[in-house]
Amino acid sequence: LLFIKGDQVVLRRSEHEVRIPRERVISIAEGRERESDYWSGMASIGINSRGGNTETVDATYQANLKRQTARNRFNADYLANYSSTNSVKTTNNQRLSGYHDWFLTGQFYWRTLSAEYYRDPFSNIGNQTSVGTGIGYDIIHIPRTKWTINSGVGFQEMRFDSVQPGEAKTSSSPFLTAGSQLDYKLTGNIDILYEYSMRWLNKDNGQYTH
């Protein structure tokens, strides 16, 4: 059991009691001392098929995995898109990204590491990898609504599937990034999630992506 008495936070279990100054408490995470209590996740598949003079199939695969404690937050996302027209593949891309946050205060955190892998042969991207670090702030963090903003720096390297004779097979760039995520719990089983991020690179890598 947890009680807040004046400037003291009291943790009580059976006959044992621990008192902590309230100013030392950064945040509180619900759960027992079991690793499984810290994890949550979701997965979804969407398929759209159209027939007629042209037969088309579009498919989207998405998955998310999270780990949340009082001091740390880990998040990983996977997104894949596939399309075909008359049995000819027209879209096939995959993105795997993740980050780890360490809370310095109840709302301010250090994004110790963020990483991303992306592949899109139809855009001539054999693979694109990036790593970065940054800082962030939770503007709202209540049970139904979570809104955070962040910014940071990193490095990106892209390897092309094919190039003209004499051209480089790879291209790299440092970057600045900024983003925001809003998660609103509409009901007990339905969340509305909005996420946006932007990356500024050198001219050889497109200047910016979002």
Which key features would you list for this structure?
mainly beta, globular, 3-stranded antiparallel β-sheet, 210 residues
Description:
This protein is mainly beta and 210 residues long. 0% of the residues lie in helices and 69% in strands. It is built from no helices and 13 strands. A ten-stranded antiparallel β-sheet has the order 4-5-6-7-8-9-10-11-12-13, with no helix packed on it. A hairpin with a 3-residue loop joins strand 5 and strand 6. The chain is globular and about 75 Å long. The N and C termini lie far apart (45 Å). The model has no long low-confidence stretch (mean pLDDT 92).
- Give the ordered list of helices and strands: EEEEEEEEEEEEE
Proportion of beta-strand residues: over 45%
Task: Outline the low-pLDDT stretches.
Answer: none
Supply Rg: 22 Å
> What structural class results from the helix and strand content?
mainly beta
Helix share bin:
under 10%
Give the integer mean of the pLDDT values: 92
Give the total of beta strands: 13
Strand order of the largest sheet: 4-5-6-7-8-9-10-11-12-13
Terminal CA distance: 45 Å
What oligomeric state best describes the polypeptide chains here? Answer: single chain
Biggest beta sheet summary: 10 strands, antiparallel
Shape: globular
Task: List the total number of helices.
Answer: 0
